[in-house]
Amino acid sequence: MDKKVSKRVEQAIAERVFPGCVIGIVHAEGGREAYPFGTTIYGSAGEKVNESTVYDVASVTKSIPTASLASLFIHERKLSLTDQVRRYLPELKDDHDATIEDLLRYRVEGPRMSGLSSMSPEEITAYVFKHGFGEQPGVPQYTNLPAFFLGLVVERVAADTLDRLSQKYFFDPLGMSSTSFFPNASYMKHCAPTEICEDGKEVRGEPHDESARVFAKAGHAVGHAGLFSTAPNLLDFLEALLAGKYSHIVEGAEKGLGWQVNDPNFMGQHVGPKTFGKTGFTGTSVVCDRERGVAFVILSNRTYPKRPPNGDAINAFRRDIADIILGHT
Fold this sequence. Notes:
With 329 residues, the chain is of the alpha+beta class. The chain folds into two domains: 2-61 and 166-326, DD-peptidase/beta-lactamase superfamily (Beta-lactamase); 67-164, Methane Monooxygenase Hydroxylase, Chain G, domain 1 (Up-down Bundle), CATH 1.20.58.710. It is built from twelve helices and ten strands. The chain has helices at 2-14, 63-75, 100-104, 121-131, 145-158, 162-171, 185-188, 210-217, 231-242, 247-253, 264-267, 312-326; strands spanning 20-27, 32-38, 55-56, 195-196, 202-203, 228-229, 260-261, 276-280, 284-289, 294-300. The strands form three sheets. Strands 2-1-10-9-8-7 form a six-stranded antiparallel sheet, with helices on both faces. It starts with a helix and ends with a helix. The model has no long low-confidence stretch (mean pLDDT 96).
């Protein structure tokens, strides 16, 4: 299997899908592998990727930790799928009676958060509270807003910040010491950069997502993006799910609550009806298949030095890697 993985990664690097990546695999019966490839940037100046290279996981944040914390609090009866969002966010206008389940299933839409990045954190929050949702909850439409609100709900339910809650419930107990919303200076040295902006500034160690970056600079974690991690750390989380340590998270994830489920677009042709995972815009993804007893993570910085026009290349790569791994079990 490792030869097939290596060949496909070499092809992706040659096609400049990304300069490098780490692929990690963990099995329920025990055993894990991590395969690092390439460099953090193109050319000889790039550092060689190793399994401890830190990546901005982008929207994987929506599932790990945001939706996972929501599932935990639902399990503890501190929160319910049928609770209306305004119960926890009374400032929210035009809420259309949306529920926590509507947030987890992305059945609501409102302001596009990337278009608000010129505002301060307080201004962004006030703006989305004021404008609420454009219409009644309906067909799922994937945007950042539901996870942003879910992060605020989680914080208010537990009376603590999202980063501290993540540390308390997941990162510390699982030994995920290289996972953080706020990389320190030494940690940032091991971060793969995500893009070179129009002004020539390199984005490294701060969220690639524009609105999450605004909040991170002010020291506030948000539910839709901004987490940094390594392949071994994410495998620690996925291994816990395979082992049944967080059965309530798995149950929700297999129903598509805060996760993508049975999505062949990035999970490949061997995807099962309960296979769940999450992708990140920067070129990251996690997949967990409890029935096969295997989970894997792909970390890359496909947005460097400039984000591609679409996700075709990275999704083709994700599918091929999934086919190799899931087809082998």
